[in-house]
Design a protein that fits this description.
Elements (H helix, E strand, L loop, with lengths): L1 E3 L10 H23 L2 H7 L7 H20 L2 E14 L1 E7 L13 H15 L4 E7 L3 E8 L2 H9 L13 H11 L8 E7 L8 H10 L2 E7 L6 E2 L1 E5 L2 E4 L9 E2 L3 H10 L4 E3 L7 H9 L4 E13 L1 H17 L18
Helix pairs in contact: 3-10, 4-5, 6-7, 7-8
C-alpha cells in the first residue's frame, strides 16, 4: 500500500512548468539582445568560453532536483503489512427514500438533497462505527454494504438520485427487511437503522417489519423529511421547462409528511422520531441516541508499519543540486581542448 503522508506539498510541483516558461523566455530575450548587439558569429569568436547548451543542462538538472525534493517533502510511504485492529463501535444502516416525492421543495433545496447533506455531516462524526446505505422507493436496494470506509460511503452518497430505482412508490417495509438481513449476524445490541423518508408508505406493512427488526435487536429511528402542509413534486419536462406531477384527473399532486406513520415505525422499533425542517435536519438528535448505545468490539483491517521513503528522494534532490552547482555555464578552459576520441 502506497501513500503520501503530506500530499499537500505536491501542489508545489506547479512551479516546475512556471520555471520552464520563465527560463525559455529569458534565453529568448538573451538571444535577441545578442543579435541586436552585433554579428553572432563574430561574438562567438570574441567569447570562446561561452556555452550555449550548458545553461540548459544546468536548468534541467535543477528541475530534477526540485522534483525529487518536493516529492520527498510529501513523504511517500509504503505499508508493509495488514493488521487486524479491534475497535469499539456500532453498526449503522441508513435507509434513504429516493422516491419522486423526495424532490418536493418544502425543505430547501429539496428533501432528498437536504437529507444527503445531513448524512454527509453524520459520516464526518463517525469514528469506530460501521455504516451501510440502503436506498428505497417501490423496492429497496443495498447502495453500500456495511463498511468502515467512510470515504466510499460519501462517494456512494453523492450518486444517489430517484432515477436509480426503476420502481416508484414508497416501500418502507422492504427497506426495513433488507436492513435486517444486512447487519452482521453476530452483532447484538449494537445495531441501529435510521429511516429517512417523508413517510408516505403505500406498499407494505412497515410497522410489522419494524417489530420484526426490533426482535432482532435492531433499534429503528425515523427522520421525517418534509412539512405537514406538503409541497408539489417538480419534474423536468425537457428544454428547461419545470412542471409538477399530477394525478389522473390532472390535479397537481401535493406530497405531505406522514408523521403518524413514522412515529408508529419508531415506536415499534424502540427508537426515536425526529422531524426535519428548514432550520435543522435532526440527525444530531439521532446521533446522540446512537452514541448512547452499547459499543461492540469489532475487527477492522488496515495497513500498518508505513515505511518512510522520503530520505532517498531528498538525497537524490541534494545530489542533483550539487551536480548543478558543479556544472559551470562557461566552457572549462582546461578541458575544452581535450578530445578523448580524436585521431591524429
Amino acid at each position: 500500500m502506497f501513500r503520501f503522508a503530506e500530499p499537500d506539498y505536491l501542489y508545489l510541483l506547479i512551479i516546475i512548468p512556471v520555471l520552464c516558461v520563465f527560463f525559455g523566455l529569458s534565453r529568448l530575450h538573451r538571444k535577441k539582445a545578442l543579435q541586436e548587439f552585433g554579428n553572432t558569429q563574430l561574438l562567438k569568436e570574441l567569447m570562446p568560453n561561452v556555452s550555449n547548451y550548458r545553461p540548459w543542462i544546468k536548468f534541467f538538472i535543477l528541475q530534477l532536483a526540485l522534483v525529487f525534493l518536493i516529492t520527498g517533502l510529501a513523504q511517500p510511504q509504503f505499508g508493509t503489512k495488514i493488521d487486524k485492529v479491534k475497535k469499539r463501535g456500532i453498526e449503522l444502516i441508513i435507509a434513504l427514500d429516493v422516491s419522486n416525492s423526495m424532490l418536493a421543495q418544502d425543505i430547501q433545496p429539496n428533501r432528498l438533497e437536504r437529507a444527503k447533506q445531513a448524512i454527509d455531516r453524520l459520516i464526518d462524526q463517525l469514528q469506530n462505527d460501521r455504516i451501510g446505505v440502503i436506498v428505497f422507493a417501490g423496492d429497496a436496494y443495498t447502495q453500500l454494504p456495511i463498511t468502515n470506509d467512510y470515504a466510499s460511503a460519501k462517494l456512494f452518497l453523492s450518486s444517489i438520485h430517484p432515477s436509480m430505482i426503476p420502481v416508484q412508490g414508497t416501500a418502507i417495509g422492504k427497506a426495513i427487511n433488507l436492513a435486517t438481513s444486512s447487519f452482521s449476524p453476530k452483532a447484538d445490541k449494537n445495531k441501529a437503522l435510521i429511516i429517512i423518508t417523508d413517510g408516505e408508505n403505500h406498499e407494505d406493512d412497515a410497522v410489522a417489519a419494524a417489530k420484526d427488526a426490533a426482535d432482532h435487536k435492531i433499534v429503528i429511528h425515523t427522520l421525517g423529511m418534509g412539512l405537514p402542509e406538503g409541497a408539489p413534486i417538480p419534474y423536468d419536462r425537457g428544454n428547461g421547462v419545470i412542471d409538477y406531477r399530477r394525478d389522473k384527473d390532472g390535479k397537481v399532486v401535493v406530497s405531505k409528511l406522514d408523521e403518524n406513520m413514522l412515529k408508529e415505525i419508531a415506536a415499534a422499533g424502540k427508537g426515536l422520531y425526529v422531524r426535519a425542517n428548514n432550520s435543522q435536519i435532526g440527525l444530531e438528535a439521532l446521533f446522540d441516541q446512537i452514541n448512547k448505545m452499547e459499543k461492540k468490539q469489532m475487527e477492522a483491517s488496515m495497513y500498518s508499519e508505513y515505511n518512510d521513503q522520503y530520505q532517498y528522494l531528498i538525497g537524490l534532490g541534494l545530489l542533483f543540486l550539487f551536480i548543478e552547482y558543479m556544472v559551470l555555464e562557461r566552457k572549462n578552459r582546461f578541458l575544452k581542448n581535450f578530445k578523448l576520441f580524436s585521431v591524429k
